[in-house]
Recover the amino acids of this structure.
């Protein structure tokens, strides 16, 4: 059986500082490693963010890197949470992709959920940091993108 990348990069509701209920599941099945960033653009989707990866982007998306204990099992749960599992209706809001993340001065490959819909009508988050953006808007401690799957 092919080995699955054990790293996950999160930039929105699953960041530890957000405090979303789904974080408990992530912390149970993965170990927080460090903060990091990837190249791309972050958008405000209303009550949560969406990341778009474009080769030509000069922007950065800031987030956290986790090492998953059982990647296949946890990714299956997260796919459902992110609405990109096999049972999610098409077109799916997110796709899971393997990207390059810079963390602690190193480049690693990690899974990331990227926004899969048009962003022309969405507001770009210039800082690339969802935490800073939400605090500036006075948003509550956590957002509810989907029902937490404990």
């Amino acid at each position: 059986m092919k080995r699955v990348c054990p790293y996950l990069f999160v930039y929105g509701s699953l960041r530890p500082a957000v405090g979303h209920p789904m974080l408990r599941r992530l912390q149970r099945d993965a170990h927080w490693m460090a903060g990091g960033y990837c190249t791309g653009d972050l958008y405000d989707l209303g009550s949560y963010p969406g990341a778009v990866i474009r080769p030509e982007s000069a922007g950065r998306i800031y987030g956290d890197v986790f090492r998953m204990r059982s990647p296949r099992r946890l990714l299956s749960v997260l796919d459902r949470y992110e609405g990109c599992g096999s049972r999610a209706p098409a077109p799916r809001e997110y796709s899971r992709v393997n990207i390059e993340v810079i963390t602690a001065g190193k480049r690693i490959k990690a899974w990331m959920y990227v926004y899969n819909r048009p962003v022309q009508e969405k507001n770009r988050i210039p800082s690339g940091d969802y935490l800073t953006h939400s605090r500036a808007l006075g948003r509550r401690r956590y957002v509810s993108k989907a029902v937490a799957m404990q």
About this structure: The chain has three helices and eight strands. Residues 142-150 have pLDDT under 50 and may be disordered.
